[in-house]
Amino acid sequence: MFKKKQKNFAASIALLFFIYIYDIKKTKTFCIGALKLDKTFYIYKKKIDDDTIDCYGTIECDSNFVITCIDEYDDGIVADIDTEELNTWKKVCEYLEMNYDGDIVEITTC
User: What is the pTM of this model?
Assistant: First the structure.
């Protein structure tokens, strides 16, 4: 009885793994933890220095942004950006570069 349940469990895990791999190939997305991201991204060159900001995800009307900085104590979530007006990665990056405390290295939609 135990071996039968063990085989069924292994088969279930294999099926879930197959579905996950199929989903990655079909939708061209990948997962980090519970966060699902588009493979497409935007690289913004900062105006202040020669560093860049990597941007992941698709900006939608209700998007919030996860901000990752060089100093992890400056990391945070920005929820007050008007994405009707700031609807491109360039506009979002320019706004955050001028208004966010911290040296931003990555922005992800959530």
Answer: 0.64
Tell me, what's the pLDDT at 39?
A: 56
Percentages helix, strand, coil for the chain (3-state, rounded to 5) are: 35, 30, 35
Same domain, 95 and 69: yes
66 within 8 A of 107, measured Cβ to Cβ: yes
Place of tokens 């706004």: 95
Helices (H), 1-110: 2-27, 89-99
12 three-class SS: helix
Please name which of 41, 20, 12 lies closest in space to residue 108, comparing C-alpha atoms: 41
Residue 35, domain member (yes or no) = no
Same domain for 92 and 53, yes or no, is: yes
